[in-house]
Amino acid sequence: MTYQRSASSTVALSALAERVFELLDNPAFLGAHMEEPSVMMLGASMKYNFDEAEGRAVGSVIRMRGLILDRALSVEEVVTERHPPLSKTWETRGTVRLLVIGSYRMGFRISPARSVCSLNVRIEYNLPTRLPDRLLGRLLGGFYANWCVTKMTAGAIAHFRSVQPTP
Q1: pTM (2 decimals)?
Q2: Residue 74 maps to which CATH number?
């Protein structure tokens, strides 16, 4: 599928690629910003539902559901690529019921260098198909996509700042 828009965030981490991959391979960690009410979520939150592989294998399914302004939101993602400790990609399938973005592909790439690495989190997305949401997406989709990838990289920075080195 071809996507119309994209956003990404790249950070340097003082951690081994294997440790970074282990952390980011957990969809609950990456999506923690979606489970907490926030201004960007208009005070709403999403709840995750994982299959047996918990998003840690190609073909694994991740579902999210929520309610915003009395409107049901839902999206189903499937892991399409997974190359430990360097990269992982997942994308939506089926009907996407979100407000400001439509179908999307997300992923991360880790570039190791000794005891540090570079982490890039990206999203490629289309605008929603429904007209009111499409207009809202034109206005806010870019802000939301940037917020999302930045929250993910900021979460990784915070995690590795708080982790004590292993002796």
Answers
A1: 0.90
A2: 3.30.530.20
